[in-house]
Amino acid sequence: LLLSNGLTVTCEESEDFKYLAYKVTYSVVFPIGFISNSVALFVFLCRTPEKSANTVFMTNLAISDVGFSLTLPFRLVYFFRGGQWDFPDWFCRWCVFSFYVNLYTSVLFLTGLSILRYIAVVQPFRNKSLVTMRRASLSCFAIWIFVACLSTPFLMSGTSMRDEKTRCFEPGNNKSWKRIFILNYVGVLFGFVIPFFIILICYGCIICKLIKGEYSQTMNTRRRAVYMIAVVLSTFLLCFLPYHVARTVHLHAKVLEKNCQVIEFLLKGLVISLCMAASNSCFNPLLYYFAGETFRKAIIRRAPHRRTFSLFKQSGRQRQSSLQKSRKLHP
């Protein structure tokens, strides 16, 4: 629908599809993302006696995912209420801020893990001298500061009034859209394009090393490298790439005031891609499992089927021992 407002013409966007998609996605992502990343965080902090640079990056990645997951119940309340924000304005700003912080810290932490894997595989003799806990901790700290600074403008986007409702997560005027338009290119360049190229270079070198057979580590370590490549590339291609493409195209159409039907169509693509981007917190535990040996062992050790199997073995041994004793007593 076209709405005339003075000299500007804006489009009234349908909210049904958008709100339904967010309600379904966040209802799934919240329990899976929160529980799996909380378990990972517990394992990294309390069940990993020997910390490594990989553990440092994975711990920070899990912290980012848990922090974002904690905002999802409030988003769900908003969308189930039909777009009515019942919480303080500052918390609306924080929820918007946390989405972008999680998105881009995830990208950069995954890039850091890819660089660590590259050094371990391609430069194994320099691994111990280049990779240290201190450098990993400083790198993660720098990533938090860098992303927080770049995401600070989103703290300016608070609540707005529309249709007699207090809105959140929805830019209220053309000035807000133009600010997001500029921030979009900063995010695309530093939060996706550059990290993605670094990851492609790292994994290209790793694959070449594996194909040439110059990698001297065990088959298990090779398999872990392949699993990590698959999980990280899948996360980038399924979660991050569609969102950045859809967001850029939609913002172009919005700022240039394209036809309302075009904007509505692009908005649906943006909504779907944003749901995929929000689900990245569900992919990361797969990375912990396949690439993190300590995490995998801790999960397997506490798996229900393993405990059941151990109980069966133990009870079997007890029965066998009882039979042997009875035979001795009653030959």
Automatic annotation (TrEMBL):
Organism: Sinocyclocheilus rhinocerous
Gene Ontology biological process terms in this record: adaptive immune response
PANTHER family linked: CYSTEINYL LEUKOTRIENE RECEPTOR 2-LIKE, PURINOCEPTOR-RELATED G-PROTEIN COUPLED RECEPTOR
Entry membrane topology: Multi-pass membrane protein
GO CC terms: plasma membrane
GO molecular function: G protein-coupled receptor activity
Domain called G-protein coupled receptors family 1 profile: residue spans: 36-288
Transmembrane regions: 24-45, 57-79, 99-120, 141-161, 181-206, 226-245, 265-291
Entry's localization field: Cell membrane
Keyword list, A-Z: Adaptive immunity, Cell membrane, Disulfide bond, G-protein coupled receptor, Immunity, Membrane, Receptor, Transducer, Transmembrane, Transmembrane helix
Pfam families: 7tm_1
This protein's name: Cysteinyl leukotriene receptor 3
Major location category of this protein: membrane
UniProt-listed Gene3D superfamilies: Rhodopsin 7-helix transmembrane proteins
